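yo, Transport permease protein is done. seq:
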Amino acid sequence: MADQNMESFTPSLIRHEPGVATIHSINWAGMGALYMKEVRRFMKVQLQTIWAPALTTLLFLVIFTVALGRGGLMVMGVKFADFVAPGLIISAMVQNSFQNSASSLLPAKIQGTIVDYLMPPISAGELLFALVASSVTRSVFVGLAIWGAMLLWPGVHVMPHHLWAVVWFGITGPAVLAFMGILTAIWADKFDHAAAIGNFIVTPLSLLSGTFYSMDHVAPLFRTISHANPFFYAISGFRYGFLAASDSPILLGALVMLGLNVVLGAICYVAIRTGWKIKA
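structure:
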């Protein structure tokens, strides 16, 4: 009787060989390892990846507040310095998210070490999630560094009014740029290609999307063009979290950012899954 009971329990006890890792639906260990590897990669040079962008953004704040803020200029019912500060934060966040994701795959692709990303037992979705999450993490670090410095800056008030908007647009905005960076790395054949996307598409779109001005102060044609810019909704929504005022309906902006993440995420997933331009 005891032997029969032991036999009934044996299959569940020795289902897998000792020491053999078993991956069920999601490889959490592999995905976490890749995420930590990417975080350590940019943290090793944090002077360049975190503090340098923060310093550059603060210089923008100094220049614009000195040039335009001394005269008591009011925008959307607040001082110009308070208006421009949230836009500067999210603008730096999205640009660094793009740079981080693009610099993850592109060097490996060009140097022939892309196999280090493709051979481990992680799926395309897990690879994509780890790369995007690490890019968003870098953008959050940059944003916190800038926000912390602005808290100490005289004449600037950057305390959130709607924390949920700060969190939502502070994550979905950089995530969109992280997906764009991955697509750029997959498409590009050399570093110049990625630099061209960053210099001629990402930077202009981020700066010409209401970072330094309100839509009430621009011509109707330029306002229409700005509303077609996806960066506009990230900046407007993020600013709403600090000022409780925005240039566009906040719900529309939240849905636009969600839709962009879904669409770009699906495109990146298909590109990685099929091995477009990354598999021989």
